Amino acid sequence: MASLSHPAVRNVCFIGAGYVGGPTAAVIALYNKEVTVTVVDKDVARIARWNSQHPPIYEPRLQEILRITRDGTNTYQFNQNRGGNPPAEISHVTVGRSPNLFFTTDMEKTVQTANIIFICVSTPTRHEGEGAGSATDMTAFETVAAFIAAHAQPGVIIVEKSTVPCGTADAFENVVRRSLPGLYFDVLSNPEFLAAGTAIHDLLYPARVLIGSARSGAGQRASQILASLYNWVPKDRIITTDYFSSELAKVAANAMLAQRVSSINSIAAICDAKGADVDEVALALGADDRIGPEYLRAGIGFGGSCFKKDILSLVHLANSLDLEAVGNYWLAVLEMNSYVKHSLVTRLFMGLDGLVADKKITVLGYAFKHNTNDTRESPVHDIIRGLAFRKLSEIAIFDPCCPTEHIEQEIDNIHGFGTATAENGRVSVYQDVQHACRGAHAVVLTTEFRDFEYEALQMSAEASIRQKKLADPRPFRGAWPTEAELLSLHYFLQQCPDKPTPSAKENDNDDPLGQFNPMPPCQKDCPDCRAEKNKTEDKGKMPNKKLNWKDVHANMQAPYLVFDGRGVLDIARMDKMGFKVATVGRQSRAEWAEWHKKVEPVGTHSWI
């Protein structure tokens, strides 16, 4: 779509190759074959990894979309049942596509040629200056905005993807128009609503796409042009508003999601004190349509780069408007989250009867949630701080998505000690989950990876496979399959190696349609390649089998304590195997009585 002031969209630029910019650019490129999508970042190593077979972030389905958009595809053929009586099977040919997704460090060239520029840079909490500890640090955003103003072509549409304070778009427009009165452009707010671990699914099937613009004809035309890039999203899910409301809606959405997590965790604390079951309480709450079941899973609190910083930003905004009660309300959400994480460590020591010297504790999960390698603001950081100086013999860490080298480097950077030099004991990072648990006195589950769940030993392998099978998406709804339907067919055929397509290469289950080109090579210092060389698996060592709890028990030491911080274990079955299971708000009456004897009186909680 083009107008008198905006040229037709041929080039789209994403500034920032992180957890938002990379996946969003990939899906935009997937559905807009005729548009060149370029992701630019000043981090040379990060861009090199995006241009390799091992991208810097792990998200389910991201790799396949990169192979389509970044590497291009071959023409391929498959059969489709068209229905009828008798059913008619026809051959469908999908023509190969050229690459239209690129990653580069050349910001000047990319910005100069772009019709639409998405700003996807980090906006963390400010640590210095006015508003330190709550205000948003806009340094990276402002630097990028100034660069765009100096190099962009007239008619460019600038899109805020980064989470920014309410009023940023308006202020940006006013500053640039005063300093560069001859440059015509529009600023839009288009916040992301992605959850780590489901980012690609959230992009393919969004609950809503929010676009905020100036209250003017030009702003609304720019909004329509941006909406045209989201051509796969039903029109009733594209919400257009002013950019003040859009910016505030993003921050408010994260704050309210975090609020639900803290709310159910506060109820879990009461359940622990009274012997109630928080899952039963949550079931009753979620049955109320006014509440709903989402985000009512009690655990060790929220993490990630968004919730905490966005609540702090909301607190700063409220205080700047002299709304002290509003600011205090949202601060209470963060205080509850801190309480939950700190109380976990206290309860761990209680479970070990306070005798922690020379004990080994294994932490399963380092990322802030499952199916991601994003470790920003992970609850595990607080747990490590609480454990590191308690004279343990070892703190063992395993995560199926985080490369070992990354965990080791981050522990050194954040906690100030190396993995082999922690005071009064060592912190070890394992590549094998069974080895990590070997010799442990306690195991702590901090992320809800399905690989950590208790699987009934009686379930046959055949039943397990059957349970996971995907449905064949054919026949497709329309005359031509959508990109999402072709992806679904790809995943369906992967689980059916006995049903090859005419284009498929023999014994290549990674490419059952025969569409992919070879992946680009990695740099010599690629950490994932080094991990593979050491016989670990690709994509962050994702294991193929669940944790074998029977073997874990055989190799643990008394008291065989397992703290389920995410509510993923079958407590009754674990108890029969000889484990002593503790969790958040889910103890049986007998377990509650045992814990209740050890609980510190109210007001004497030991904060770390």
TrEMBL record:
Catalysis: reaction(s): UDP-alpha-D-glucose + 2 NAD(+) + H2O = UDP-alpha-D-glucuronate + 2 NADH + 3 H(+)
Binding site residues for NAD(+): D41, R46, T123, T163, K309, R376
Enzyme class: oxidoreductase
InterPro entries: 6-PGluconate_DH-like_C_sf, NAD(P)-bd_dom_sf, UDP-Glc/GDP-Man, UDP-Glc/GDP-Man_DH_C, UDP-Glc/GDP-Man_DH_C_sf, UDP-Glc/GDP-Man_DH_dimer, UDP-Glc/GDP-Man_DH_N, UDPglc_DH_bac
All residue ranges annotated as the UDP-glucose/GDP-mannose dehydrogenase C-terminal domain in the record: 362-468
UniProt entry keywords in alphabetical sequence: NAD, Oxidoreductase
Any Gene Ontology biological process: glycosaminoglycan biosynthetic process
Pathway of action: Nucleotide-sugar biosynthesis; UDP-alpha-D-glucuronate biosynthesis; UDP-alpha-D-glucuronate from UDP-alpha-D-glucose: step 1/1
GO cellular component: nucleus
GO molecular function, one term: NAD binding
Keyword RNA-binding: no
Binding-site list for substrate: K250, Y295, L296, R297, A298, G299, G303, K369
Record family assignment: Belongs to the UDP-glucose/GDP-mannose dehydrogenase family.
Protein name: UDP-glucose 6-dehydrogenase
Organism: Schizothecium vesticola
